[in-house]
Amino acid sequence: MMADPLDRIAAALERMAPAPLTAPDFDAADAFVWHVAPDRLEPVADVSRVDMALLVGIDRARDTLLANTVQFARGLPANNALLWGARGMGKSSLVKAVHAEVLARGMALKIVELQREDLPSVGRLLNLLRGQEARFVLYCDDLSFGHDDEHYKSLKAVLDGGIEGRPENVLFYATSNRRHLMPRDMIENERSTSINPSEAVEEKVSLSDRFGLWLGFHACDQDAYLAMIRGYCDAYGVEIDDATLRAEAIEWQATRGARSGRVAWQFFTDLAGRRGVRV
Question: pLDDT tens digits, residue range 99-148?
């Protein structure tokens, strides 16, 4: 038996314009991930984190971001933050570690991870968070924009908020390898080919200016690299003398052609496995 035509039309309209999303139980978790199609906030019971004490060589960025986040958690004014710079130096780890530290201090704060490709949906997410009693850090990892990428316009809804303004209970943190969130050759091309170079590039470059905090992360030197590994060994109970650690760690980084916190962790993971220590 065929369904009534009116029922089919109603079902089609509901798919085209779904009912407004209801807020989840924000008491169920301290971390959530935003998904689209359909829109939903999924709680994360166990967040992948590195203890803040193990983040070496980023003291200034750590202290600045922690102070800013504590202010926000207390209901005081705070700035959106862009963590930019060398890859593998702890930008995303710091955001998650700061959130854990705020929770450890007894303050209520939620973190919501948003993927870059889902930025066009950010207006719907902000409407969901607006007016909630909880306070939220909206976090986007590895944020950058390429040629003909219009997603940056959606980001303005978070940073400026349009006519409604950014919700008072939402703060935005982003990590990026690029200070201006786009390739340098893209900026230079705009400047060299447009009729009015300054106007052509201003809209996109000024996006990073909308972040109140710029926190730079730079490649670590050898001493900091070795200190990271020693910190991991001490924290997880991996016994190794300094001479052996130094020789093996330097050889490891030479084969990778780079030094960073990520490379230090990868070496430690290999070392712990060889020593039979579970991490």
Answer: 999 999 999 999 999 998 898 898 899 999 998 999 999 999 988 776 66
Distance in angstroms (rounded) separating the CA atoms of residues 118 and 151: 9
Q: Locate the domains of the chain by residue range.
A: 26-217, 222-274
| pLDDT score recorded for residue 1 | 46
Report the C-alpha gap between 166 and 249 in whole angstroms: 46
CA 242/CA 229 separation, integer angstroms: 10
Per DSSP, the residues of the chain read -PPPHHHHHHHHHHHHSPPPPPP--GGG-SEEEEETTTTEEEE-SS-----GGG--S-HHHHHHHHHHHHHHHTT-----EEEEESTTSSHHHHHHHHHHHHHHTT---EEEE--GGGGGGHHHHHHHHTT-SS-EEEEESS----TT--HHHHHHHHHT-TTT-S-TTEEEEEEES-TTSS-HHHHHHHHHHSSSHHHHHHHHHHHHHT-SEEEEE----HHHHHHHHHHHHHHHT----HHHHHHHHHHHHHHHT--SHHHHHHHHHHHHHHTT---
Please list the residues that pair with 139 across neighbouring strands: 113, 173
What CATH class does 26-217 carry? alpha beta
Q: Which residues of the chain register pLDDT less than 70?
A: 1-22, 146-153, 157, 161-165, 182-206
Amino acid at residue number 66 = L
C-beta contacts of 152-157 below 8 A and 24+ residues apart: 152/181, 152/182, 152/204, 152/207, 154/119, 154/120, 154/121, 154/122, 154/123, 155/119, 155/122, 155/207, 156/207, 156/210, 157/122, 157/123, 157/126
Q: What is the pTM assigned to this prediction? A: 0.82
